[in-house]
Amino acid sequence: VLLQVAGRRGRGPSVPVAHVAWFAAFALLAGLARRNTGLLGPVCGYLLGRHGWEAVRAWLGGKGKATWPGAAAAAGMALLATAAAAGYVTEAVYRFERTTRRFGAGLQAEVYPLDSARFLGASHAGGDAMAENFGDGGLLLYYAQPGRGQAAGEPARRVWMDGRLEVHSPQRFEWHGRVRQALRTPAGADGVELPPSVRFLVVRGGREETLASLMDSRRWRLVHVGPTSACFARTDWLGRDADDAALPAEADVSDLDLPLRPDGSVEGTPPARRRWYRQNPHSVAYDAGATLLALGRPARREAPPAPSPLRQRLTLLAARYLTAACAEGVVPEDVAVGTLALAHQHLSLHQGRGPLPVDVNLARALRLYAQVDLGDLERVNLQLIAAQRVHALVQAGQLDAAVRAAEELLQALPPAERVDPPRQYLELRDTLSRRLEEVRARLAAAGVDALPLPERARAMIAPAAGLVATALEQLRAAPRLEAEDRVLLGDLLLGSGRAEEARAAYRAAGEGAPAHLRLDLREALCDWVAGDLFAAAEALDGLAERSPDAAVLAARLALRELLGSGSGRP
């Protein structure tokens, strides 16, 4: 700005009025919102390239007649402006900033809740709609209109509210903000005050806490799920169409139940790929997976959670889409892998271990957590992943390993937080440490330390003990193990997510292992835990044909459900 002013007042040529108008217009746009500031860069670069050198000469009193510095400055500014524009157009800037911002014109179907808006438009159930994100109200106004009108001459379905299409008082915006905050907890979703005519609530994907709390709320029920959003209906709505049978009794997720393909993508969902012209592509697979994971989270109001076939299916689909997102390599690896690990962690709560020698979902989760570098928890999402890993170890019955992981979490915090750690991390570490001391004291009193190694190891890995890491260390240090004990060692390694080491232990057991231990099944589970899902499926298919038993059939069914019915042989 100063250079432009200097150019106007100096003895150099005046700046054309059009250039001043360009600058003023784009400066105004940049001042309207923080995300618009990038628009000012290319215009300023061009103007500085054209007039910057003359402005400098004017400041210097018009001295110096050489033209090459001005030409070099103009070329440099032009290149800088071109590079800035190319960085935004190709989204390279957003990729380097690790943000989810997008560039481009037109409707971004992979971002906005089009699926839920179209569902409401096709529904004949009465009642108004509200978008949890007030900026999505325009979509509902456009797509949700075809529903049946409440009365002749009235709009088919009113929308509360759209902050960009309607003029509202500050009190109205404050009210909507309070509603959004209340919806983040089940108790708030149960009691938040809403207009009597509002029956439907559309929530965009990415609002995980809101989606999960609405699923736990007794006031709302899920009536539609899409890759980018979910639609909920009030159970306490008192409109004249409250008993309208047009609404489904339960959300239909069959449109999302598409198989995982050998190339790592979900059928019908094109994988996101980086191109030179699109450096920050949008991962529909990750968005769909994160939305389904939030909706399928085990209910928090019941302990243990009540069985829910719908939640189990939602979590299963979440694991499938998140597996595809990890294969894409577009979403930052720690985010994609950590979210997939949480999906398997929740899937374990839904499905349990069954007749298998290990809980494959928990083993897979621990394997995935081990792939994330948690040595420096500078970013908040890494802290959440590290805490999830501790809870997964507790869920897997590995108390001693969980205490170690909690200590590692505290040591890896940034310096400021290491001095004054967050309270929840300290309480987690202290609670687990006290429980570990109690377990060790109880085992010592029972004389477990005097038992032979195999019996001692089995006592330490009992559910009431949870000293899996200690048992592993002692078994691996033993100079000689029987074949059956080597199988036990392999099971402990596999349950900890260390598939390659488990495979080596199984092969070391060799033919000396009893036939009922099914080493062939265990090796197939090693492929599954390591992430080679199609190799594991092929191995389980062969086992089911040659020598089926309950464990083989259960493993085959669980893996086929994860891959999807169209992933191979039924």
Task: Give a description of the structure.
- It is a single chain.
- The chain has helices spanning 2-9, 17-32, 40-59, 68-89, 92-97, 114-122, 137-143, 170-182, 186-191, 208-216, 284-295, 309-328, 333-351, 360-371, 380-395, 399-411, 415-419, 423-445, 453-460, 468-477, 483-495, 499-509, 519-530, 533-546, 550-563, and strands at 128-131, 159-160, 198-204, 220-225, 229-234.
- Helix content is 56%, strand content 4%.
- Helix 11 runs parallel beside helix 13 (333-351), helix 13 (333-351) packs parallel to helix 15 and helix 16 runs antiparallel to helix 18 (423-445).
- It has a 5-stranded mixed sheet with strand order 2-1-3-5-4, sandwiched between helices.
- It is mainly alpha-helical and 570 residues long.
- A hairpin with a 3-residue loop joins strand 4 (220-225) and strand 5 (229-234).
- The mean pLDDT is 87.
- It is built from 25 helices and 5 strands.
Q: Unreliable runs, pLDDT <50, ≥5 residues?
A: none
Q: Provide the structure class.
A: mainly alpha
Oligomer classification? single chain
Radius of gyration: 30 Å
Q: Give the strand order of the largest sheet, numbering strands 1, 2, ... along the chain.
A: 2-1-3-5-4
The helix fraction, in percent, is 55-70%
Give the overall average pLDDT: 87
User: Would you count the extended β strands for me?
Assistant: 5
Per the principal axes of the C-alpha atoms, what is the gross shape? globular
Strand content: under 5%
Largest sheet: 5 strands, mixed
